[in-house]
Amino acid sequence: MGKKQAGTGPLLRRPDNSAFKQQRLPAWSPSLTAQTVLPTFYILSLVCLFLGIWLFITVENTYELKVDYTIAGTCERCFDLRKHAITSRTACTCTVSFQVPKTFPGDVFFYYGLRNFHQNLRRYMDSRDDAQMVGRKNNLKAPISYCAPFDYVANRVPIAPCGAVANSMFNDSLTVMYNPADGSEIQVPLYRKGIAWYTDKNVKFRNPPANDTFTLQQAFEGTTRPLYWQRSVYELDDTDFNNNGFINDDLIVWMREAAFPNFKKLYGVLNRAQGPFTDGLPAGNYTLSINYNFPVEPFRGRKELVISMVTWFGGQNYFLPIAYLVTSGLILVVAVILTTVYVKVGKKGKNMEE
């Protein structure tokens, strides 16, 4: 049975006379004094200062080298070819020479970088079919409407993979050659597999069912490649059959959209089991050979090769150490102001008396 209401009137909605509802529970009310607050400010300032210096030194010891090859070296001709649709599929290769000023010790990661490419636009990010990317036959032949206008070609043949994200996939091929002092030329060996996230590779992306008698090419029959691709999805990697289709590492890396217009994505990892690369990437002269396919002139962008070390802190990023140093300075300024006010006014505010 419910509790009987005690009549009507202005006190009808008054809370019960309990310690909880009347806020009479025991509580701790700290007494903030200058002797406790000011040392806390100075200690926090020192902690942020030490963290900022430590992280700054860590970042300084993380080497990174960027090689912009948009129109560098012999790539200007390829850049001009990619300006126009009529010459967009004309094969073009170029080379760019660069120097590594100091040895990159340990594991070295190679990225391709794009500037002014906005992968974070809402309609661009929605232009994909995740059900198609897990190999569902229904979506393979009938892409969702979000992929439009990259869902079908003129004769209603479905595109696989569909959507603007897949259609704009980065498709330059990069080869780095090491030129030691003896005049020889050694190709820098890279691991090109295992560069995608585990969950992406094994959960979010899967090929349509195929076996020894039913090949991957047959599984994609009735579909066509994206408009700006030069190869079909089942022949992206001509060196490893198991790296084709929707589980291609380069495709998976590209399909994870970047948050900012200037970004880099993993292209390969240095294979340290060969030649002069056992201790890392040696200093010296290098040549970058590019199979130039990706156009950047329509969005006024730039392309670059990024070579970087990765430590426990990640790559070379100065944001966090600078943030700690700035925070330390701000806290110190506030602490000095509070100390000055405390000394001037006095412990009990006696200097405020008229």
UniProtKB/TrEMBL annotation:
Keywords attached to this entry: Membrane, Transmembrane, Transmembrane helix
TM segment ranges: 37-57, 318-343
Main location: membrane
An annotated GO cellular component: plasma membrane
InterPro entries xref list: CDC50/LEM3_fam
Record carries keyword Membrane: yes
Source superkingdom: Eukaryota
GO terms (BP aspect): phospholipid translocation
Keyword Membrane: yes
Cellular location(s): Membrane
Record family assignment: Belongs to the CDC50/LEM3 family.
Protein name stated in the entry: Cell cycle control protein
